Amino acid sequence: MARARTEERRAEILRATLEVIAERGYRGATLGAVAERVGLSQQGLLHYFPTKEALLVAVLEERDQWDTGGGARSDGTWRADLLGSLVEYNAMRPGVVQTFSALLGESVTEGQTAGEFFTRRYTQVRASMAAMLRGEYGETLPGGLTPERAAPLLVAVLDGLQYQWLLDPGAVDMPAAFQDFLRLLRPEPADAPDEPDVHSG
Fold first, then answer.
1. What predicted TM-score, i.e. pTM, was given to this entire model?
2. Residues 135, 136, 141: CA angle, nearest 5 degrees
3. How many angstroms separate the first and last alpha carbons of the chain?
4. DSSP state of 184
5. Distance of CA 185 to the CA centre of its chain
6. Hey, what's the torsion of the CAs at 19, 91, 181, 68, to 10 degrees?
7. In angstroms, rounded to a whole number, what is the distance separating the alpha carbons of residues 160 and 55?
8. Over 50: is that where the pLDDT of 200 sits?
9. Residue 144, by phi and psi: left (phi above 0), alpha (psi -120 to 50) or beta?
């Protein structure tokens, strides 16, 4: 019973953290602001999540569960037709994208808990994207790459667009730019057949 109550409380804290991030952005999502939202002291909040980094990583893990549930097949692999929809959805929640990007940037330094999360996540995402590309194009993409070689490029485009969009949203239309990239992956349309020569003799 106590374990169920703890999990319920953790879920409540994660929902509250997402709300605070949506309202105040990454910098404004302080432990104090989240604790106040759920009626805890800051020390009480630390009982469930020992650091702010641990709390935000848990939020990102939860977000991935929701996103994958809405954009994946039953076996967990992504669906190509919904990947663009996810980019559009991300464009409507800048605070969460900001949190992801900020933690990702910090995770490359030593001693960051988030580093384990992102390393594990990228391994899973690359495999999922390769499976999606294989389902879409088979063993070879139109440009000649295998799905495994193209998958890191696809992930790089997704995350790189987020950084550019966060810095200058007026100049970078993230959903449109991603659709442009997907067009690069598609095979060139076959040339139209030559018109028959209708010159009169």
1. 0.80
2. 110
3. 94
4. H
5. 20
6. 30
7. 24
8. no
9. left
